[in-house]
Here is the input.
Amino acid sequence: MGDTTLLIPRSRKRTVSTASLKNVVDEVGRFSRRTYSTSEGRRSHLVSESALSDTISEGGEDREGENTISNAETIIHLLKGNIGIGVLTMPIAISNAGLVGGVLGMVFVAIVTIHCMHTLVIAAQGLMAKRGVQFLDYADTAEAAFLEAGGGWASKSHHMRRLINIFLCMSQIGSNAVYILFVAQNIMPIVETHLTLNWNYRLYIAVLLIPVILICSIKNLKYLSPCSILANILEFVGLGIIFYYIFATPIPSSDSVPWFTSPEKFPIFFGTAIFAFEGISVVLPIENQMSKPKDMLGWNGVLNTSMVTIAALYIGMGFFGYLKYGADTAASITLNLPQGDILAQSALCMFSLAIFFSYALQFYVVMDIIGPNIIKPNVSDRMYPFVEWMTRVLLNVITLGMAATVPWLDLLVSLLGAIKMSTLSLMAPALVDSAAHWNSDSKPVFVYRCIKNIVIFTIGFLACIIGTYISTVEIVKKFQNGDE
Here is the structure.
């Protein structure tokens, strides 16, 4: 449909601004659609074991076209895809490892996760060049890498693809449970300050059910794109307000908090920290839109520039937030802000709205996987709209039920980080990296790569098992002690 504003001869200035706004919304919608393109229903046939193209150049060749993005735009998209609720849990994460231990731990988590992002991009660029593909998402890359390795790897390729998509789907549902818990616990102090309803946080979750179902009934990502723009603005303004409160008064001495804590708390720290680096699934879709994909890699490349900036933000928020509030550090630093201040209340409102909108975008991913791959093959075309809508309602009820079950945001984040991000950010990239180079590495490089990836896989596996166990035990203890 054409832009009808161009037909109006008056107010030329307004026409330009409207068109510009439409371009911004269209760009965000296009980016989001590529970012969330995980559906098996749209998978490329070029990921199959077809003949390799001899006309494709090496991976990372410059791309041309109106849908490509510059390096600066890539950095913005990477920042947008990684900075979320995790940054607000950094102070409580640092508290579980100590001031110095937490910073060192965050540096370690950042180095390992950024390395895994690099290996995923390198594997994807090489596989795209060999197979003549213009776009590979996370699951595509995993399947193609296993096919490329051949032998026993190839027989597991389809299962690997399905496993990645299952974890991506579970990841979105789990993240949405965290989002709803966050929104409920952040609007509660605002409402209670002015109305004194004395409601439990679960009642606030129940109130959110109808708005959640309504916004998640939007099936066209184009109409959710303005929500993404607004969410980003609200998040960055809110972060500015939080840093204002941190530095508005003198920060206590570093001796006021422990530098290291007991080792049994470290898995909770690790789960919370790795949850914050949740953007590995968007790295490949973003890379595939770059006009100069070779600039993604390298020590001063786009990926390192973006992720080092994000890591610095996380470490800064965690270090100064924990130093500021010490033993009183809340599960989300927003809950440490003075509840009576209008500015603090505005920050809580901003983050609540931003996370609410992010919930709808995350839910789009879930239905983008479930709709074409589970519902459509099993119901008639006549029944599909009804069944699809009922699935939306049921999934939202389940998600809000999960949020209402565990009221401790920090432990829920740690549990989900241990389960989903240890798999998606560490174990899966290690396997993909090994498979993609299985037949091409020289013997010394092959040995080095195997040892390196075994170490990374082991770290992810232990973090998953130990982190899940300890987080679950802590949640059970809190229930037994009646700490709700």
